[in-house]
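Thread: "does anyone have the structure for this chain?"

Original post by V.I.:
We have the sequence but no experimental structure in hand. Need at least a predicted one for the grant figures.
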Amino acid sequence: MTPMLKLYAGARSRASIVQWYLEELGVPYELVMLDMKAGEHRQEAFLDINPFGKVPAIVDGDFVLWESGAILMYLAEKYAKIQLSVETRAKLNQWILFANSTLTSGVFIESAREKELPRLMAPLNEMFQKQPFITGDEFTVADVAVGSILSYIPIMLKLDLSAYPAVLDYMKRISERDGFKKSIGAR
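Reply from O.Q.:
Generated one for you, tokens below.
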């Protein structure tokens, strides 16, 4: 019997993004919640998994991986049950990297927010006026990556996004998904 995938997480961490995608994929997993305040992420047992002591991290059989974006890419390749062309894989990776870098910085770095938020939200709003999901009509790992960052805005920042109604509709649409409710929505 193959050992169950383990997802190492901490309270209020990006592990909920990975958990959301695992729920979407229907992949059985064991959620290992580390007590970050007690320093469990700095214990030797976890540092053997991620030497930087950060979550999320996964152990899938003998395979160990950390960094939320890398984990999302891995899960899409291994468990999404679809063949990805090189071009499709590149587009999905583009959106995952956009979410983890450009979007996160533009939203959560306060000194950049005033300038960057409109530059990011206006094109996203235009895109969602034309299509329901990041890559078109189908929900993909790109929606987990981008959607999770967008969903953190009302939870953590309470920013006014009323100028971007299509983005708000998208956020509502993804928040109604069962996988979202069992992960980010449950926190």
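V.I.: this helps a lot. The longest helix spans residues 86-108.
O.Q.: and The mean pLDDT is 94.
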